[in-house]
Amino acid sequence: MSIQQQFTPETDPEQLHPFRVEGKIAIQALLRDLITRRALIALYAAGNLQEFVVSQVLAYDDRHLDLDFVTDSARRASILHAPRVIVIGSLDTIKVQFDVTDLAAVDTPKGPVLRCPLPVRLFRLQRRDAFRVRPLVSDPIYCHVRTGLDREQAFRVLDFSALGVAFALPKGLALPKPRDLLRHSRLEFSGSKRVIPCDLLVRNVADGATGQDASRRIGCEFHHLPPEAAREVQIAVMEVEKKARAARG
To answer: At 195, which helix (H) or strand (E)?
Structure first.
């Protein structure tokens, strides 16, 4: 499985079959995990895998499933008119995928929800590498790291995922060590106002980073990322993934 498919549907039945989960108790356990962890999900109309709606699992009972459904009118119509919608979620190193049908928009006191019958099966796919995505060269992302009491430097992001980020360290700069904690760092996205504050725990320092001015790849894990920041990271992963697919044609 490609590491760039964190929120992209798997469409090959033979690839999916070994990962199927059936039975109401097992299905509800995975749905409960998605709710408890406030995991983001992506909704795809089965006939159009180029567009998705960001959502969350809100609630379920023995018959129905409710999904958050705040989006623009065009995507709302696309999802509601689709005979089948593919749902993709992420739980740490696990990718969860399932289909839903017979969807209806329902207004509730807490806002609009997408209601559908409980799925009869899910697919639980183990992820090997947290599905890192690489920003396009034409649309870079920078990781700002403090290098002194009142100083910081910006380093180009090589790849990132919902779990961490790797950046290129130019030659001549002091190397961090594994287990170093880079407090008060942040990710900044070119052409966007999005800024994601984060603390980074250094996991590895490797030779051969991509880039003419880089001699090291610094791999970091997000350290105690707040829920809102984690949500922003997951949205950013999906958006970068979408841009990469568009660039590949």
So the answer is: strand 195-207
pLDDT in tens, 77-99: 899 999 999 999 988 768 899 99
User: Could you report the per-residue pLDDT of 142-183, keeping only the tens digit for each?
Assistant: 999 998 778 999 999 999 987 899 999 998 888 999 999 999
Domain covering 141-248 in this structure, CATH number: 2.40.10.220
Instruction: Pull the structure tokens for residue 104.
Output: 């209806």
Nearest Cα neighbor of 167 from 204, 195, 196 is 204
Q: Is residue 52 helix, strand or coil?
A: strand
Tokens 């998705």 belong to residue: 52
Closest CA to 122 of 158, 94, 93: 94
Do residues 110 and 129 touch, judged by C-beta distance below 8 A? no
- Triad 105, 110, 114: Cα angle to 5°: 20
pTM for this model (two decimals): 0.57
Q: Which CATH number fits domain 13-126: 3.30.70.260, 3.40.50.2300, 2.40.10.10, 2.30.110.10?
A: 2.30.110.10
